[in-house]
Amino acid sequence: MAFTIAIDGPAAAGKGTVSKAVAAHFGFAHLDTGLLYRAVGAKVLAGVEPVEAAKSLLAQDLERNDLRAPEVAQAASKVAALGEVRAALVDFQRAFARRSGGAVLDGRDIGTVICPDAEAKIFVTASAEVRAERRYLEDVSKGHETSREAVLADVKERDARDMERAEAPLKPAADAVVIDTSTLSIEEAIAQAIAAIEARHKA
Predict the structure, then answer these.
(1) CATH number, domain at 53?
(2) CA dist., res. 80 & res. 57, Å (int)
(3) Burial class of residue 75 (count of CB atoms within 10 Å of its CB; 0-12, 13-18, 19+)
(4) E strands present in 9-163
(5) What is the pLDDT of residues 125-136, one digit of tens each?
(6) Is pLDDT above 90 for 2?
(7) At what angle do helices 128-141 and 148-164 cross, to 10 degrees?
(8) CA-CA distance, 109 to 170, in Å (whole number)?
(9) What is the DSSP string of 124-164?
(10) 3-state SS of the chain: helix, strand, coil percent to 5?
(11) Number of structural domains the chain divides into
């Protein structure tokens, strides 16, 4: 049986952590769709044209060690604003979503564009300041040199680009359950997501 869970939200809201936990809880496969765009962004930084980078994406491209680097994240946000790049990656995501045994996809437009008929939709968010602090601490722990001010500016820039782009802007689906993690622990956010999905599963 196919059961698709769409989890969307802005950078550093916690959607990746929630998605992995939800997938583990239900025994579903998980796809971080942001990795697709990061892999395309990394290829673009290496000199490949964006649409060609998307069309030629291979599974092993998602296993690169540099996909979490700040410059790759910026490149990913820029290529994600290109309609032709998004179109090239849609089929991959939709095929994954309808796999037998259930699937969890997290990204920016899963519930609105990629899987509008998903059985359950969650939108994970948090204030820009809270998300920037999380990203700053993560970057520092990985040895990246940065400042809180720079990370906050980067978060706000990415939010604006994601929310204002013409193609698949970041926004909650009309029937998504919104979870604001600004003041929640990871455990509380995961519990809320699981409860919302179980409510939809039983409906």
Answers:
(1) 3.40.50.300
(2) 14
(3) buried
(4) 29-32, 103-107, 120-125
(5) 999 999 999 999
(6) no
(7) 120
(8) 6
(9) EE--HHHHHHHHHHHHHHTT----HHHHHHHHHHHHHHHHH
(10) 55, 10, 30
(11) 1
Residue type at 82 in one-letter notation: L
DSSP secondary structure letter of residue 52: H
Torsions phi, psi for 65 (to 5 deg)? -80, -15
Q: How far is CA 87 from CA 66, 104, 138, in A?
A: 24, 20, 31
Do residues 58 and 43 lie in contact, with contact meaning Cβ atoms separated by under 8 Å? Answer: no
pTM of the model: 0.88
Crossing angle of helices 148-164/70-80, nearest 10°?
20
Which tokens is 31 given? Answer: 């796809």
Between CA 89 and CA 140, with CA 75 as vertex, the angle to 5 degrees is 120
Give the span between the Cα atoms of 66 and 42, in whole angstroms: 8
Range of the domain at 37: 4-202
pLDDT in tens, 148-158: 999 999 999 99
